[in-house]
Amino acid sequence: MFYPLILYKITLLLLLSSFCLSYLLTPIAQNLAFRFNVLDTPNYRKIHKSPTPLLGGLAIFLAFLFTLVFFYLLISYQLFITGPAFFSFGEEKLFWLKMALYLICSLFIILIGILDDFKSLDFKLKLLIQSLVAFIMVFSGSRLNFFHLSYLNALISFFWIVGLTNSFNLLDNMNGLSSGLAIIILSLFAFLAYTTHHALFALFLLIPIGSLLGFLPYNFPKARIFLGDTGSLFIGFSLATYSTWLFDHLIKSNTSHWAVLIGMLFLLFIPLCDTLTVIAIRIKKHHPIYVGDTNHLSHQLVKRGLAPTKAVLILFMGSLLTGILGLLIF
């Protein structure tokens, strides 16, 4: 009878902890960016008028990391006090092993993000490191097990992780867009995990949600700091990884393979649609796919007369609506 009360307390603790840490760490990251001249200077593709500090992603990651450690200690204590029979989430050991590997790989993603924010790295080097990280994640079990052929699942999962990692990097072109979409998608992931009896995963997802919420006031509607590649790559990599875990959980829950696949595509519709559209345009125009332009969905809305803030809000609504449709499919 006390289980829901414990769950609600942990939910509140995780959201508040991650939010407050991120909210407090973001100004520190802002000052560091100014001190070391890690700034995004305006150009024809960008709407900001003055150099803006990067490294917002560093504050998000640190808030996420500290809260995750707190979460682990909290769960361990609760299981010790009440016993696993009373407060069991299922597959705890496997979950934490996967989490440890994800954190190690995230450190590499954060590292290349920071280096790229300080001094732009060659695209090929970034792609190489992302590919190595994706390879590690896939062959440790983070994959989309849709087909009966394991090597085909591994190949698709590899491109899925690399693609989504870069998708949010490409999507980070207007204030609040990447972080806001990530909050919406993660919230839908958490709801889906909870309603399909994976409470541990649902609780965990509150940590990145809170970390992003703490950063958002500094980035939307007016940006005092940007995510930088540190933040956008970490968000993309995290969502890619979480989606494979959720996919695997839903398949094991005897949900239809096709329902899981189509539902997942709906949950991630806006970032996937934006990325595929931009890549198609760049290929058609014989432009390198890694060179930025103003052909993103947000840019198209602005070209049609909308203010950037309204364009971002429309994409938020679009993501929420397609996400709800995705939930109805499962």
UniProtKB/TrEMBL annotation:
Mg(2+) binds at residues 169, 229. The chain crosses the membrane at residues 6-25, 54-75, 95-115, 127-144, 150-170, 177-194, 200-218, 225-246, 258-281, 311-329. GO terms for cellular component: plasma membrane. This is Glycosyl transferase, family 4. It comes from Candidatus Nomurabacteria bacterium GW2011_GWA2_40_9. It is a multi-pass membrane protein. It is found in: Cell membrane. Its cofactor is Mg(2+). Keywords: Cell membrane, Magnesium, Membrane, Metal-binding, Transferase, Transmembrane, Transmembrane helix. The lineage of its organism: Bacteria, Candidatus Nomuraibacteriota. Pfam families: Glycos_transf_4. GO terms for biological process: cell wall macromolecule biosynthetic process; cell wall organization; lipopolysaccharide biosynthetic process. One of its GO terms (molecular function) is metal ion binding.
